[in-house]
User: Fold this.
Amino acid sequence: MKNSMKGIMLFVLSVIALSCKKEDKSPSYYKGDLTILTDESFKSVTEALADGYMINYPDAHIKVVTEKEDLGFLDLLKGKARVAVMSRELNAEELKAFKEQVGSKFLPARFAADAVIFVVPKNSTKTSITMNEIQNGLLSDNKSFIFDGANSSNLNFVAQKLKKQPKDLKFSVIPGSENIIEQLNKYPDKIGVIGLNTFSRPYDKVSIQLRDMVKVLPVENNGKLYSPDAAGLREMEYPFTRVLYFLTNEGNFNIANGFIRYSCTQLGQMIVQKEGLQPYNIYKREVQMR
Assistant:
């Protein structure tokens, strides 16, 4: 009888041990591996949010991979990553593909206001640019605008803003926004088109050096100048303000959705602000008077 009871107890303990082991390996929002695809233009804010999440959850391991915006979206649909960062609006065909391949509704998690900006060398006499100049210049054979490549978020967003297809625009290419800034002096008649997050970090040494190399042009629209500063982004008055958002193919609340929720809460939005971008979710600071 004792041997029988002993055998039963050993069996129960082994089942409990296996259950605990299985539970330990189960998916969770606070541990595991996650790959995030982001365009180079907003890599900095994505990495900052990933670092913040890993500090709060040491068992979470997040890898940020740089990929052109259009290609990142396609890889998300194929399941090659669980999160992609986007800035442009999806068209009807893309929305349909998302619903069919991901199997859930399109629910963008908006987390920051960024901007596409137009820059010239510091010694340029040009002080502003009009919407007409931008539109006409992108249809001209002079190719006076320099983008970081096709399929990029900057080109996609400008094309969408001008109600054009990227393939219809004429432009020059220098791969990488930082390379555009560093090489712009070689092309004094050109205008660089980059993402604000390229050098938006207020106290970062590299950002300061990059900002010192170029002049950001305010955009004139209907006779008024708009700058990509805090006010221009907050009120979305700057014509090329864009809202960054996360897309995920994760159907439950595991690490991908955990990271997205964190990015949209107060802690994540404080990181967005430290990056020099405008938080999408604004939290009131409560001050108690005694």
In short: The longest helix spans residues 2-24. The mean pLDDT is 90. The two ends are 72 Å apart (CA to CA).
